[in-house]
Known about the structure:
With 422 residues, the protein is α/β, with parallel strands linked by helices. It folds into two domains: 3-146 and 364-406, Rossmann fold, CATH 3.40.50.720; 150-361 and 411-417. 45% of the residues lie in helices and 20% in strands. It contains 16 helices and 14 strands. Strands 3-2-1-4-5-6-13 form a seven-stranded parallel beta sheet, sandwiched between helices. Strands 8-9-10-7-11-12-14 form a seven-stranded mixed beta sheet. The longest helix has 22 residues, at 282-303. The mean pLDDT is 91.
Amino acid sequence: MSDSDRTHDIVVWGATGVAGRFTAEYLTERYDSADLELAIGGRSRERLADVAADLTRRSDGWEDVPVVVGDATDPESLRAIAEDTRVVCTTVGPYTTYGSNLVAACVDAGTDYCDLTGEVNWVREMIDRYHEAAVDAGARIVHSCGFDSVPADIGTLLVQSFATEEFGAPCETVRIYLEGGNGSVSGGTLASFGELFEAVATDPLARETLRNPYSLAPAGERSGIDPGEQRGPRRDPLRGSWTAPSPMAAVNERVVRRSNALLGYPWTREFRCSEVVPTGTGPVGAATAGLVAGGLGAFTAAMSIRPLRSAIQKYVFPDPGEGPTRSEAEAGSFSIRVLGRGVAPGGRFTVEAEFGADRDPGYGATGRMLGESAVCLARGDLDSPHEGGVLTPASGIGLPLADRLREVGFTASVRQVSDGSA
Length: 422
């Protein structure tokens, strides 16, 4: 089916949920109906109609936002939606439970797709089941287009592109630092987190996915020199400060390694990447790193025990669909720093990228990252060697996504730094 036969440019699937609504609100504020053929989708026509009415009230550029109705458990309804749009942009998780039929529908229809998943076990399953079929169909299936994993993946691409252009060589090592910010975690995100632990407890493939740092690489290439995410407090080799493990490293590091593989290893097969939380220098930095590592380790241990996991999910986690208000999302912020170090004929060099926004990372910023990912796909605003496949933000969209995010207030800068200032 050609794109000219499709009614919609983008369908925001899950628009009645918190993340989906933020995404739909962003797209209707940023674009108007003359620029973008947008529809919203989900299970309840009545709830979708309420969201559509609110969207039109908020924006003068929309007299109507079409509604499409389907069910994540009904493949035929999803296929009909996929066949009628250029891009499906989905916020409906846990993706392990609700995402597979939609990916299959998009692959069958040759429809591009983007999501917010951080469920690496499910991403591995989608790679194994659908990558080759998506290549054949010309369907770009781009996972992890929110806070997981756009800042880490596109930030690394910024560093490596700059290094290659300026020095003629990529960085051998990249470190991603979660420097600061404030915001909230949604009930849906935490439900996905719980789903991952449930899968690890019952599924050998999920356990292998989390053990192997290269588990998202193409089949036959799932090994390398990188040891995987940091487990305890450690003095940082690039900055000389103390660092603690990052709770997002298990996702983001694997996504970055898959990007390197899908781009044809422009950063070499010896490339190493890691993501950490900086905690400062001296005894205070060391103690803070130990406390963060200990707390994360204790939480992970508790989530690995089914009765404790059930209690945490019931009494501590918010319910799926819960999230911040609009004003709370706009009051948040995040800042990520990416340092890359390499060697060129002129000597050793260090490159730094900064990626951030003055919005809640899990909602206000994520809605923009996901929305602009979908727009890039719908408009063909891409710097990618791939016309289809199960892809990453860096390999499936590339630097045009950074350009678009800068236009809407994100920091996405890159520069050379001296070793002393790194």
